[in-house]
# Entry
Amino acid sequence: MKFTRAKGLCGEVTVPGDKSISHRSVMFGSIAKGTTEIHNYLQGADCLSTISCFQKMGVDIENRGDTVVVKGKGLRGLACPDADLDCGNSGTTMRLMSGILAAQNFKATLTGDASIQRRPMNRIIEPLSLMGAHIQSARNNGCAPLRIRGRALKGIHYTSKVASAQVKSAILLAGLYGDGQTRVTEPYVSRDHSEIMLKHFGAQVYREGTTAVILPARELYGSRVDVPGDISSAAYFLCAGLMVPHSRVLLKHVGINPTRAGILQVIKAMGGQITLLNESCDSGEPVADILVCSSSLHGTVIQGALIPTLIDELPIIAAMACFAKGSTVIRDAAELKVKESDRIEVMVKNLSAMGACVEATEDGMVIHGQSPLHGAVIDSCQDHRIAMTFAVAGLCADGETDILGADCVTISYPGFYRDLERLTVR
Ligand code: S3P
# Structure
């Protein structure tokens, strides 16, 4: 798919529902008692994988498009699947479902596409095994396919080396079935959608500093969930609005949970003009409309506790930093190497191909701003966030930018190119 320079980006856009919250609503709804009605469920391939895995375990899930209705089976009502559970490209599906399967009364195998079969699973195998689960990497390489046999679980206090909501959530979900309290301590607080939604469904869960605590539950109770717009999808329009001259974009109803909204802090630190309007709350999650206008940006340092709050936005932030005055330093972000692609390597390679001045470091990158970008052939490596990042970069570059594997945006934002084109002034 090809992109050329835009004269501006103007108008309003409502991005699809949050991916993390959508996954959790179907998972928690499936193991709750009663009906969960989910509004604005993300119809991206990852979230459809979650629906199909729970349907294979006997859950009645009706996907009506925007609304999904889940007839929950209760904490111990899932059925043994008669085939492998295919998580597709979705790390959230695989890791969170492992926490649930660790306590079920049957054996299951979790698999997925080539990318997920390369991603590290020891980070969940280790804590779930400490809780008493029987969980193995089928090829003994620390990756999927995973074979899980449910067992009676113990509550543990686990200290994770990485700030990862997928790891934390897998342990908290297993903790619902524990024989006592389960605690997960992280180096920094990761996104807390599981804690918010589990509480909404009746679990006893709370935070002490960087430790999340959960008590065993007798049942969860299904509830209505309104999924806010995904800030990780909104990020492409936020950054495009700042980068493309003569732009003014209004993003409607975006989730701004502080454990996810680090990009807003970075935009402010870089001198970006951004305003929050109509702040409200959806099922315990803060939301707002966000207005953004083209701005002259300057470099910044992004590190430490901020990193988990914007981990998925770092590719588009790195692209935006190419248009800022001075240098932008991203550190403490080694997790980028184990996402859908190695996002440090892939970003540096593709930005360099467009003429950017950027260096990879051990745990991030350094971008020296204001070398003009030119079009290039970009390999998305089937990573949805890379494809969307370079579609935006292509709007600010001379010549033509050709994205290979552009269709992978269906993972998180099936209508992305249509929405981008609609806002683009030629
Ligand atoms: C997610 C957590 C993050 C994020 C991913 C979604 C979640 O991963 O990158 O896209 O829904 O919990 P990690 O937990 O591995 O950091």
User: Anything to note?
Assistant: Residues 231-243 form the longest helix (13 residues). The two ends are 17 Å apart (CA to CA). The longest strand covers residues 273-282.
